[in-house]
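Duplicate of #3305? Posting structure anyway:
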């Protein structure tokens, strides 16, 4: 049996010997660990550098475009009335702004329905067309009936009338429509409602209609006297003793009322006009301001009088008195419904309740707004079904159902609410219904949805479509939204409520100071990190983990080189380097900012500071605009030559439109707009044209709105404009420019496309074509982009205007922030120098780990060899020791023998 523990038999400490030998053999392992730690430290350092460079790049993001510079402050005196923002094009100054109305959307409501799921009507197929436009003329309000008969004598008692929950100050002296209108108008600031008295007109039958006999000749031969007064003006007098025919007759009365007579002048002074004649029984008196007109015949109490109003000649006249009264109309200032109440609204000619409608108005569809159709039949003729169909249409009207909470057997709490999606006066709805197959629209649906501001209004308006109205320094301005743009150049106003305020526009030097200071700080922070990672500390005699690394050295040098160079390519700018705005390098490599020098630059060259930091383009042709550039776009001044302007796809009609064009019911056309190659099904849709008769302008408006109302088109930003030319033909234009702009229409059902367009011709649009700086550029619509490989690579310009050939020059410069941002991008990202360097270092660390593993495996073999060798030696020595001991014993025994 062999020895189980090394050294036991020989006395040699095999484990210690092997351990010491292996300590020597494994000494290189520490070198592997040192190398790995060194490379990992560099990886960590590059991570820190990447973070610092990323922070630096983030600080540049707001400085690489013009939006970070040339900022102007817009400060309202009262920011509860409006807020404002200003761009660099705004002109400093102070403005007085008075907001008199804030834009709102129109809201319509139906009457109540018991449930949302019960069928409405018979289910007959009905097409409902929604169009949006503007109401003009007329008013929105309530027309009253003639005032109560007792009003002319007893007035209107206090509390008899309330409007929008405000009591109107009436009493016993309120005896005419004019006086009542005055009382209502005195409260218009509170109620939002004004009143207009209708003209007072005496009865058409007062003087009869059967000729002279209805105003019999006045006969006072019986000893009586007679006088006739109108509105307090005595127009005829006859003393006693005058026989009939010799005094007042219908003819003499007409003579007194005609021409420049004393009676006519007196009536005019009383604001009373005369129409008709007594001779033919049509004589009427009118007071335009709504004052009462009293007509009285006074007959003396002694003697007899015959003839007069309503009395034939010879018929006794005992005197008469009648008072004509008028009515008033209530007008809502903002188109809101009017609430009428009080103890006796009937005395004022009204019925208690809430109401209002357009009166005497006209409606004009807005061609810039979309229109659309829904079809209601037995599958969806419920409130819920109608709401779903309208909302699915997505044509500028949203629908909902609101319950008023009423309960009970006969309760009808559910109301259909329609709201125009956009604000502005041009968002007023007109809802038309038509049947199918020659049948009329379902009457129940007509009663529910029929709405025409110029006609039947079966829905109630709860809020009127309204524009924002304001004055800026006394100049009237309007906007379809709460925002107002363009009234003040470069300034956008956001109105919040009505009222007056001031607005101060000034250079936002604090923001510019902050941007420049942020640039300086960002660079110094990056520079500090670079020094920490790659510098050498003489005191501690230690270097940073990236000391001597070429990547960080090149980065630092590139940044310093770019910041020390001058900006070129932007002609006319007085600022070309950082020192001109107070930024300069210090001996320690940091930047410092001279605020006084920056302030002077802001005052003297405010518009040029952006060019020092951002990518800026300026052209001599105002119709050529800078869009964007890339890091490969080189600064310079480039000539622009245009060989072809961008055009829009068109469909030009050849048929001269008649005075009226009839579109039949069930007319549908298939429209393909801005289609691509290969064709995309989303670029083709079927539109339904509302049946009706249209003049050329109305037809263009209807067709444009119908096409633009297709949700698939509007979602893709595809729209058209429709115009009627001087030659009377209709033309459709895609609003898009370029080779992807086109429009084609085909008849599906009903009225043929040829009825409107004749043999119309579709022409696809063309892209702009030309060169920039003599180099090839690619056109896409109105955008011209510099080709790859040229100094103008990536330079994008928008080419508008209407001329080809030379279009002047375009200067482009890359400011420091833009250049440094591009430089940083070259070091960051998946293909950046830092990422590549880090990837290489990590690969090296992995290679070292593999080498270390291989070396460790070799050490195991070496240790085994050492142990095998010393185990053999141990065994040999142990055997020799055993032999020696045996021989010693033998020799000792022999010696004794």
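Output from current build:
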């Amino acid at each position: 049996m062999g020895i189980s523990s090394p050294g036991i038999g020989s006395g040699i400490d095999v484990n210690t010997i092997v351990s010491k030998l292996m300590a020597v053999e494994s000494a290189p392992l520490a070198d592997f660990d040192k190398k790995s730690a060194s490379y990992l430290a560099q990886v960590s350092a590059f991570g820190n550098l990447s973070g610092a460079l990323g922070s630096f790049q983030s600080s540049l993001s707001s400085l690489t475009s013009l939006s970070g510079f040339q900022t102007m402050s817009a400060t309202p005196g009262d920011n509860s009335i409006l807020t404002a923002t200003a761009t660099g094009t705004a002109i400093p100054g102070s403005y007085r702004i008075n907001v008199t109305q804030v834009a709102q959307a129109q809201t319509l409501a139906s009457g109540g329905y018991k449930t949302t799921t019960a069928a409405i009507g018979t289910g007959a197929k009905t097409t409902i067309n929604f169009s949006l436009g503007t109401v003009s003329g007329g008013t929105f309000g309530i027309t009253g009936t003639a005032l109560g008969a007792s009003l002319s004598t007893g007035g209107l008692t206090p509390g008899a009338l309330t409007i929008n929950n405000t009591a109107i100050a009436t009493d016993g002296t309120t005896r005419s429509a004019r006086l009542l209108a005055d009382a209502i108008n005195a409260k218009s600031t509170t109620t939002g409602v004004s009143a207009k008295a209708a003209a007072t007109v005496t009865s058409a039958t007062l003087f009869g209609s059967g000729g002279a006999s209805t105003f019999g000749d006045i006969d006072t031969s019986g000893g009586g006297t007679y006088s006739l007064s109108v509105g307090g003006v005595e127009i005829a007098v006859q003393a006693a003793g005058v026989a009939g025919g010799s005094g007042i007759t219908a003819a003499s009365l007409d003579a007194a009322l005609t021409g420049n007579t004393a009676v006519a002048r007196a009536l005019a002074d009383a604001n009373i006009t005369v129409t008709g004649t007594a001779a033919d029984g049509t004589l009427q008196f009118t007071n335009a301001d709504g004052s009462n007109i009293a007509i009285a015949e006074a007959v003396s109490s002694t003697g007899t009088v015959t003839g007069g109003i309503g009395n034939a000649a010879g018929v006794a006249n005992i005197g008469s008195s009648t008072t004509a009264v008028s009515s008033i109309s209530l007008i809502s200032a903002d188109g809101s419904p009017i609430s009428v109440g009080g103890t006796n609204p009937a005395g004022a000619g009204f019925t208690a309740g809430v109401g209002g409608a357009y009166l005497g108005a006209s409606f004009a569809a807005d061609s810039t707004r979309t229109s659309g159709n829904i079809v209601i039949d037995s599958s969806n003729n419920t409130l819920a079904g109608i709401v779903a169909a309208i909302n699915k249409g997505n044509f500028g009207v949203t629908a909902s159902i609101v319950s008023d909470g009423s309960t009970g057997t006969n309760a009808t709490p559910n109301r259909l609410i329609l709201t125009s999606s956009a604000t502005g006066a041009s968002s007023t709805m007109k809802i038309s219904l038509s049947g199918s197959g020659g049948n009329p629209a379902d009457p129940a649906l007509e009663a529910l949805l029929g709405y025409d501001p110029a006609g039947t209004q079966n829905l109630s308006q709860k809020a009127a479509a309204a524009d924002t109205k304001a004055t800026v320094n006394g100049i009237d301005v309007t906007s379809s939204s709460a925002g107002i743009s363009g009234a003040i150049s470069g300034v956008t106003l956001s109105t919040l409520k009505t009222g007056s305020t001031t607005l101060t526009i000034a250079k936002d030097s604090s923001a510019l100071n902050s941007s420049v200071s942020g640039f300086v700080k960002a660079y110094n922070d990056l520079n500090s990190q670079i020094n920490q990672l790659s510098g050498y500390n003489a005191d501690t005699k230690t270097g940073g983990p990236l000391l001597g690394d070429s990547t960080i050295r090149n980065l630092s040098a590139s940044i310093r080189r770019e910041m020390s160079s001058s900006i070129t390519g932007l002609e006319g700018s007085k600022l070309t380097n950082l020192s001109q705005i107070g930024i300069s390098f210090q001996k320690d490599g940091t930047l410092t900012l001279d605020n006084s020098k920056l302030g002077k630059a802001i005052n003297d060259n405010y518009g040029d500071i952006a060019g020092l930091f951002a990518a800026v383009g300026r052209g001599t042709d105002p119709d050529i605009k800078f869009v964007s550039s890339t890091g490969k776009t080189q600064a310079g001044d480039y000539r622009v030559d245009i060989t072809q302007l961008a055009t829009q796809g068109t469909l030009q009609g050849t048929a001269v439109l008649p005075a009226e064009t009839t579109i039949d019911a069930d007319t549908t056309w298939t429209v393909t707009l801005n289609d691509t190659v290969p064709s995309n099904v989303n670029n083709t849709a079927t539109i339904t044209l509302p049946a009706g008769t249209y003049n050329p302008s109305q037809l263009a408006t209807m067709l444009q709105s119908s096409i633009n109302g297709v949700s698939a088109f509007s979602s893709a930003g595809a729209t058209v404009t429709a115009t009627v030319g001087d030659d009377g033909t209709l033309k459709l234009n895609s609003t898009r420019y370029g080779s992807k702009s086109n429009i084609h229409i085909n008849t599906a059902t009903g009225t043929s496309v040829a009825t409107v367009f004749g043999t119309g011709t579709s022409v696809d649009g063309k892209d702009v074509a030309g060169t920039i700086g003599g180099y090839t550029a690619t056109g896409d619509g109105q955008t011209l982009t510099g080709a790859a490989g040229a100094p103008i690579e990536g330079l994008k310009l928008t080419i508008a205007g209407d001329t080809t050939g030379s279009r002047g020059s375009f200067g482009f410069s890359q400011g420091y922030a833009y250049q440094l941002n591009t430089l940083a991008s070259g070091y960051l990202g998946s293909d950046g120098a830092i990422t590549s360097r880090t990837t290489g270092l990590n690969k090296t660390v992995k290679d070292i780990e593999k080498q270390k593993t291989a070396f460790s495996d070799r050490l195991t073999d070496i240790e085994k060899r050492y142990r095998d060798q010393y185990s053999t030696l141990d065994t040999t020595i142990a055997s020799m020791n055993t032999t020696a001991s045996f021989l010693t014993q033998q020799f000792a025994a022999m010696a004794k023998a």
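Confirmed duplicate; merging threads. The two ends are 34 Å apart (CA to CA). The chain has a mean pLDDT of 89.
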